[in-house]
Amino acid sequence: MGALAIYPGSFDPVTNGHLDIIERAAGIFSKVIVAVAPNPLKRSELFSVEERISFLNEVCSKWTNVEVDSFTGLLVEYAIGKGANIIIRGLRFVSDFEFEFQMALMNRRQAPSIETVFLMTGAEHSYLSSSLVKEVAALGGNVEGLVPDIVLKSMLKKLQKKGS
Ligand code: COA
Questions:
Q1: Which terminal CB of the chain, N or C, has fewer other CB atoms within 10 Å?
Q2: Is 15's C-beta closer than 6 angstroms to any atom of ligand 1?
Q3: Is 92 noted as a catalytic residue in this protein?
């Protein structure tokens, strides 16, 4: 499909569930921009935006049509500025649907030319969230295989520092 798509999120940190969505989106759209958006409402921030971008750059380097960026302000304004006409969102459970539906409709009201496309998250990742991974890792649980190895290493280091 000859379209430029934006995959926005806070990605604190990127998980294998996000990567599954990115990989599939890269197979559908001609170019995908993974866009990190700092969310001031989220209190459990672990990584800086620069660190999140650096992880994403490393794990997305195998896809030649995937670019990593960040933005502040309205998502639709960012998308228009980039010349993108698609917003990608991953859907995990029915519980995601209500909020996603609300956001998609609000975004369409702001920018009718931009379409939101939903990809179903792989079943093996459907229970994942960045916060859950951070919480389990902070409490000493095993999160191997849920996040890329570079994220795992940095997360454990950071949590160790926080704890000491
Ligand atoms: N696999 C694993 N986890 C996933 C996932 C997947 N496929 N998809 C989502 N998640 C997790 C994320 O890690 C995140 O976890 P966390 O809440 O523990 O950090 C959670 O699900 C929610 O993710 P997401 O829905 O992508 O929210 P977000 O906060 O990461 O991103 C924005 C929301 C950035 C898209 C939204 O706030 C936005 O558009 N901001 C810009 C301002 C704007 O335009 N606002 C008006 C919108 S109408």
A1: C
A2: yes
A3: yes
Please, are residues 47 and 55 in contact by the beta-carbon 8 Å criterion? yes
pLDDT tens-digit series, residues 86-113: 999 999 988 889 999 999 999 999 999 9
CA-proximal residue: ligand 1, atom 40 (nearest): 75
In whole angstroms, give the CA distance from residue 134 to residue 13: 8
Burial (CB count within 10 angstroms: exposed 0-12, middle 13-18, buried 19+), residue 140: exposed
Q: Quick count: other Cβ atoms within 10 Å of Cβ 106?
A: 12
Closest CA to 92 of 135, 123, 132, 115: 123
Contacts of 4 (CB under 8 A, 6+ apart): 29, 30, 31, 32, 33, 82, 83, 84, 85, 86
pTM of the predicted model as reported, rounded to 2 decimal places: 0.95
- Beginning with the edge strand found earlier in the chain, give each strand of the sheet holding 115-120 in spatial order: 66-70, 31-36, 4-9, 86-91, 115-120
pLDDT at 40: 77
Residues of the chain with pLDDT below 70 are: 1-2, 163-164
